């Protein structure tokens, strides 16, 4: 039985909203799929809660600033915090933007106890962000024997600090974690240990409201009811780690090291070599039936500077996760080095002498400049914690199957070839318009979304007022002009009561004429009539048309450079929209 | 008598030779990706055979391509949609395509860049729906096809003609750089569900003509599809 580790968790409450807000006093909420996922303290005062609909949040606080979710922004900004903490604690683990975990034993001994250590770190953090837009940041530090307990404690600390207006660390006494966890509600499992909502709800319906109740059951009963998840629940609620440490002997330590003969200054080359190493690294451990859950990635520059950081993923680090983390670390490190260069830091040999100001240095040219002075000479991957691989199936990205792994690699390669904006994946966001219901996000960003535990899947549902099934398979992002006439050749119009002026009879696209066989509609949409800038008023119509064969194709060829609809198709079903007095083809049922 | 034995010996040796040759050539395993039940009878091998090219043309081509892919993506294959500009994602979901394993790629329309992109996609994805640019050279197309066969992926070509917004009239029959193994040519016969101002589009009758290199005899089907 290994000795319990003391863990400290530093939590920046609602990090993504605080980063997104323009200044520290404006209420701001970050929205994903029409729901609030994070909000600033100012918005919290109005009663805006996480999980609320966008509309509801706006009703509570009309001045609220609504920002779309953007994981890369959170990640880049978080490095300012990481750097400050890194000054005081040498080896830290960044679980996600807004959350830092580190072993508490060493630092708290050095700084005179858990409480003083926490206060000292937070003090340093607050002075560094005091005059920036992050000043409203709420920080909490929790120290406990298990990860779950430390996370809950950090949250409690942040909440207490916000109400007392003074930083209060929350320290759970050593060996008291069990007792401390016992009265907590089972909902904390969902909030901090990413146990899904259905399981939590089932536990509550079974009458297991506190962790104490879960703990009182025997592990085998839980295992019989929930399978592997039951064992996990029991372990969490009695204050152990979610995934146990390996009981089988570890495979001999595997050293993954790459030394460059000449200092390398191209970021892409470094990432490529990390990729090679990561593949060998994960392969080595999977051959031994185990998986690495904590890894130290270390870079060393020509000047002797070093960047070492710990990365943790409870499900085990896949190749793509290692590469992603290495990229994050490398970019941040280069940015900080460059910041040091600009401020004219003479002591270039002092390790980790970072300038504290946070700069958004995304410019690649600048990064390469940084590397010219500090070419890398060594890259190293060290396994810090290994456990047996239980072959857990992962959702979405970073998959554990072979096809997922190769596909992820191919997607990475494609993004490299074409730029990240040309390789996209779809995410449901909901909407009435056929174009709105799915949002296209660049695939490289989606990978970080998939890895974060916060991104809960929302089931795709049709909006009221959306078109009935089936949906068109060709949707134009820029609608095509079309002319729709009635039997007298007059343009079709729609009255204020959403009635057609006459039956549609003919359709003209470019120079091609169509005869209307049947139609359905009109279906009106009036959206956001209270907001002048974003209001929409339109009418939709489904048409089934038949092409009228042109008398002379040769003359038609010369007459039009643009012909939109294939001449071979005789019957065509399309969706047309009347907006601002103009008919357009929005989609075709191909 | 003597002659007979001699003959037998030569016969045996030839048989032996053939046997060893058969051993040397790999047994031809036709592995295929599963397709939904209603699609199975359309395809000659009742599935999407890896390494082959299927062309879905005509005015129901894209929806047909989507429903061909649906079961395979649900079972864990990844789908890349390359160069198809105006894909309706809702329609893809309704056909059963698993969007969490779907990537949309928008390469430049030049021959070389397009073929490099498709080749890179073939490396890691099992299924591709591609729209072939008009200017793709035959050489590049052949390279892509060789890569496809060696990597055991399936490529479904959809017509670009319906999708692109600007197209010259003479380009309609030119996108034949790829020699498709199976060609599914569709033609909508009628739509049901709409009337003169009532109802909504629900079903359609589609004539599907199956031809191509791997199809022994051209066949015609009349299918009622939900889209």
- β-strand percent of chain B reads 25-35%
Radius of gyration of chain B: 22 Å
| Contiguous runs where pLDDT drops below 50 for at least 5 residues of chain A | 343-367, 393-400, 448-458, 552-568
Find the CATH topology of the domain at 32-165 and 174-187 in chain B.
Rossmann fold
CATH topology of the largest domain in chain A, which one?
MutS, DNA mismatch repair protein, domain I
Query: How confident overall, as mean pLDDT of chain A?
Result: 77
Give the class of chain A from helix and strand content and strand pairing: alpha+beta
In round numbers, the mean pLDDT of chain B is 81
CATH level-two architecture of the largest domain in chain A: 3-Layer(aba) Sandwich
Assign a percent range to the helix content of chain B: 25-40%
What's the arrangement of strands in the largest beta sheet of chain A? 15-21-20-19-18-17-16
Number of strands of chain B: 10
Largest sheet of chain A: 7 strands, antiparallel
Give the gist of this structure.
Chain A is an alpha+beta fold and 590 residues long. Chain A has helices at 15-20, 41-45, 54-60, 71-88, 105-111, 114-129, 147-164, 177-181, 187-192, 197-205, 211-216, 219-226, 228-237, 267-287, 319-342, 364-373, 402-418, 443-451, 553-559; strands at residues 7-13, 28-32, 35-39, 65-68, 93-96, 99-103, 138-144, 170-171, 255-264, 290-301, 306-312, 376-388, 423-428, 438-442, 474-481, 483-485, 506-509, 512-527, 536-547, 571-579, 582-588.
Describe this entry's structure for a reader:
The complex is a heterodimer of chains A (590) and B (227). Chain A has 590 residues and is α+β, with helices and mostly antiparallel strands. Chain A has 4 domains: 7-181, MutS, DNA mismatch repair protein, domain I, CATH 3.40.1170; 255-392, Dna Ligase, domain 1; 394-454 and 462-466, no CATH class; 474-588, no CATH class. Helix content of chain A is 35%, strand content 26%. In chain A, the strands form 5 sheets. Chain A has a 7-stranded antiparallel β-sheet, with no helix packed on it. In chain A, strands 5-6-1-7-8 form a 5-stranded mixed β-sheet. In chain A, a hairpin with a 2-residue loop joins strand 17 and strand 18 (512-527). In chain A, helix 4 packs across helix 6, helix 5 (105-111) packs across helix 6 and helix 12 packs across helix 13 (228-237). Chain A is globular, with a radius of gyration of 29 Å. The model of chain A is unreliable at 343-367, 393-400, 448-458 and 552-568 (pLDDT under 50). With 227 residues, chain B is an alpha/beta fold. Chain B has a domain at 32-165 and 174-187: 3-Layer(aba) Sandwich (Rossmann fold), CATH 3.40.50.300. Helices cover 33% and strands 27% of the residues of chain B. Chain B is built from 6 helices and 10 strands. Chain B has helices spanning 2-24, 37-40, 61-74, 89-94, 111-124, 138-151; strands at residues 32-33, 48-49, 53-58, 79-82, 102-105, 127-131, 154-158, 182-194, 199-211, 219-225. In chain B, the strands form 2 sheets. An 8-stranded mixed β-sheet of chain B has the order 5-4-6-7-3-8-9-10, with helices on both faces. In chain B, helix 6 (138-151) links the parallel strand 6 (127-131) and strand 7 (154-158). In chain B, helix 5 packs parallel to helix 6 (138-151). Chain B is globular and about 85 Å long. The termini of chain B are far apart. Mean pLDDT of chain B is 81; it is low at 163-174. The interface between A and B is large, with 68 and 67 residues. Strand 13 (423-428) of chain A pairs antiparallel with strand 5 of chain B.
